[in-house]
Design a protein that fits this description.
This protein is mostly helical. The chain is built from one helix and no strands. The chain has one helix at about 1-50.
Length: about 60
Amino acid sequence: MRKVMLPFAIALVTAVAITGCNTVEGVGKDLKAAGQKIEGAAAKKDDKKDAGAAPERGSEKY
């Protein structure tokens, strides 16, 4: 019985480890993509804010 259980247990642990690595990699990619979208949205908002802002004192356009 032990001869049958040991290879099965090793195969099960290996399968779980491989699946876990793929899952963590996928989560990392999702977090990276979400961060890039947040940065893009913040940059767009900052650009709009700068475009509508009053010119600084001392500038030629003031």
